[in-house]
Design brief:
Layout (H helix, E strand, L loop, with lengths): L13 H4 L2 H16 L4 H32 L2 H4 L7 H12 L9 H10 L4 H10 L5 H11 L1 H24 L38 H35 L2 H8 L5 H13 L3 H14 L3 H14 L1 H8 L4 H28 L1
Helix pairs in contact: 2-10, 3-8, 3-10, 5-7, 5-9, 7-9, 8-9, 8-13, 9-16, 10-13, 12-14, 12-16, 13-14, 14-16
Protein name: Permease
Main location: membrane
Family: Belongs to the UPF0718 family.
């Protein structure tokens, strides 16, 4: 359920064509120019320096997204939802962290699974793990927060998927998880294919002109997407470091104990932008004194509860299942933050 850019139907109306990320970007620059002109150039230099150092990772992430889309690798994901229920939950959680789906592409995919009678346990495992990590996000996270943090976040995502999946499996006969699918749903986002199970995988995509065009279009669109959000995030990071006293962050989200981890979990949902923009923001917060545990819980809670991921779940299942999804997400985020904090304490 990665937040990749994708092709939609043309938007109508001037307000629908306005990009909120760029509005925020230039609004921040304008505010700096008016209220703190001496900090404008240093903030821009900091942003450009961070973008430059991250550029190789961004380019690799763009290539990886385009390659997965052009080859049709999404079709492989369907194989995780076949066979023994326990095996399905484990594979669904593991595949969730690697699935090259955008948040709206997952809607018809999951709808088809549920309509075919796939156990909700496997679907829940995939849903929980999917927004937390994917290959491009792993690359970006590793570049800014370190390979250890990226690996730990991936393991946490898979573990949270298994946790949710097995809880649902144990309670599958109860009224809570009976008949989970809404009576009607809409999947009109305009991206993805209509049949996520029978698509052919063509690794040598360059031999097919249509797939080559998909590769080119996806690369261009995702490069623009990543540049936009990372430019905004690095600008916010620069402003935050210059204007937010480090002792504030250290007092609120720093130190040991469960309080900063709990706060990171609770703040993750409302403060989260998207998986890519969150990385440099967390990097800046860590420099200001945020604890490692709070950083991990913030990232995971924000991933699960962010608007694209939440809408994908809400669009398909009844409210009681949605509440269970969010609950699993917050429990998993708090647990992951606690374990990560303990590991950093003993390391």
């Amino acid at each position: 359920m990665a937040e990749h850019i994708h092709s939609h139907a043309p938007k109508s109306g001037i307000f629908n064509r306005i990009d909120g990320a760029w509005v925020a970007f230039f609004a921040i620059l304008g505010a700096l120019a008016i209220f703190a002109p001496v900090d404008l150039i240093p903030s821009i230099k900091s942003m450009l320096g961070n973008l430059s150092s991250t550029a190789p990772f961004i380019l690799f992430a763009v290539f990886l997204i385009a390659f997965l889309r052009a080859t049709g690798a999404e079709a492989i994901v369907g194989k995780a939802f076949q066979g023994n229920p326990v095996r399905m939950v484990i594979l669904a959680a593991m595949v969730g962290g690697l699935a090259p789906f955008c948040s709206c592409e997952v809607i018809p995919f999951i709808a088809a699974l549920l309509a075919m009678g796939t156990p909700l346990a496997a679907v829940m495992a995939f849903w929980l793990a999917s927004p937390i990590m994917d290959p491009p996000m792993f690359v970006i996270t590793s570049s800014a927060l370190g390979i250890d943090f990226a690996i730990a976040k991936t393991i946490a995502g898979v573990g949270m998927g298994m946790f949710g999946g097995f809880v649902v499996m144990a309670m599958s006969k109860t009224a809570l998880f009976a008949d989970p699918l809404r009576n009607s749903y809409k999947s009109s986002c305009g991206c993805g294919g209509s049949d996520p199970f029978n698509g052919e995988v063509t690794w040598a995509f360059w031999t097919d002109s249509a797939r080559l065009k998909t590769f080119r279009d996806t690369a261009i669109e995702n490069a623009a997407f990543l540049f936009k959000w990372l430019a905004l995030a690095y600008l916010v990071e620069a402003v935050m470091i210059r204007f937010v006293p480090a002792e504030w962050i250290a007092e609120l989200l720093g130190g040991e104990g469960l309080q900063p981890i709990l706060l990171g979990t609770l703040l993750g949902a409302p403060a989260y932008l998207n998986g890519y923009a969150a990385v440099p923001l967390i990097s800046g917060l860590l420099e200001q004194g945020m604890s490692q545990g709070a950083a991990m819980s913030f990232m995971i809670a924000g991933s699960v509860s962010c608007i694209p991921a939440a809408i994908a779940v809400w669009a398909l299942v009844k409210p009681k299942v949605f509440v269970a999804y969010v609950t699993f997400g917050f429990i998993g985020a708090f647990s992951a933050g606690t374990v990560w904090a303990a590991l950093n304490t003993f390391s």
